[in-house]
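quick one before i forget lol
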Amino acid sequence: MNKNTKRYRLVNKYGMKEIIIFCNGACEGNPGAGGWAAIIIDGEGWLTVEGGDPLTTNNRMELQAVVSALGALREPSKVRLITDSVDVRDVMSKWKAQGWRTTAGTRVKNEDLWKQLHAQAAKHQIICERVKAHADQNPCERFCLDAIVADINDVCDALAKHEIQKIRNENDRYDLVVILEQFKKRHEIAIK
């Protein structure tokens, strides 16, 4: 780093750190193996958090990405949350007001994650924006802000899909171990 280079911490007039979070979830099959990822950016750098679940839904992965990203923040912050999930954007505060019930009176799906999201969100000032999923941009528009946001969202999606592949690989290894154990048992019986 050049000695004349200054590092700036993004802080608003209320002394809160300003953060940008990109979140995404993915699922192969619904339910199926799923992954989630978040890219957290502040004035000092960026980090990713990601994970997965061998049997889940896409909505759970979208929610888990947001919950985990907010949980990774060490202090109350002003957060610009960018997601391609309509549910996350539109109903983030709706369910608690309705007693965690739908308009039909049934319990909301993924209530555990909605409650965690609500608890995490209460610690921060959040502005939630939706970006179009898998937005194909004209190459001439590559440097416009919307294109950059869409590209970062696509990176987040790729990280989530990478988590799915890791789960698939773990399950493949597990299946192989089970098959080998069954083979050994059959082989031992055949020898006797």
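fyi Residues 17-191 form a domain with the Nucleotidyltransferase; domain 5 fold (CATH 3.30.420.10).
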